[in-house]
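User: Teach me something about this protein's shape.
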Amino acid sequence: VTFVNNNKDNFTKNVLKSLLGLIFKENEQTSQAVEIYQDQISYFSKEKMALGALLTWYLIADATIAEDAHQAIDIASQALNVAQNPKIDNHFFAVLLMMVLGKASLSVSDFESAKMHLESAIIEARKYGMDDLLSKLYLQYGKYFQELGLIKSSRQKDYLVGAAKMYEKASEIVKKTTKNNCIHSDIQKAKAVLKTFCQLNKISVEIKK
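Assistant: First, the predicted structure itself:
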């Protein structure tokens, strides 16, 4: 921050301020993180810095899911409209925001919307070679199937097999391309939860390779 202050790089300085909010979020101090994000949204909007605004909208929407998923959906939807505006057309943030919309929709059991947003994001991430985001999306899509599979129904096993397949796709991308240890750890945790649930309920979800 001192370096960018000395070089009068206001954009980078304010991006760094936005990212400081992540420290509060990781320490479960969501309200403090949101306060920082809101200040930065005001700055980026005033200065008409679209990238900074999109970053901060994404961060605030993601941070808001746990406390108010409907508000997170509103924020992410508005930001997605900006990202997809032909004058901006930012595919990276469009994918990030669709991922947040999928996650937020899933948290309020809106499975139809969650599926729509996640599938749209996966198509976009594939198209533009965003492998790191694609692995996260497959992980999230696996959680979508797993949520459906927690409910006893005629399709329960199909959903759980779907979850296992998505987790495997995410793993393959990490192993072959991104080598992202954080995502790998998250995938392994998700696989362990799925395995435990299936063992307790005597459901086999072996994937034929």
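Now, about its shape. Confidence is low (pLDDT under 50) at residues 1-7. The first helix runs from residue 2 to 6. If you'd like, I can walk through any region in more detail.
User: That's plenty for now, thanks!
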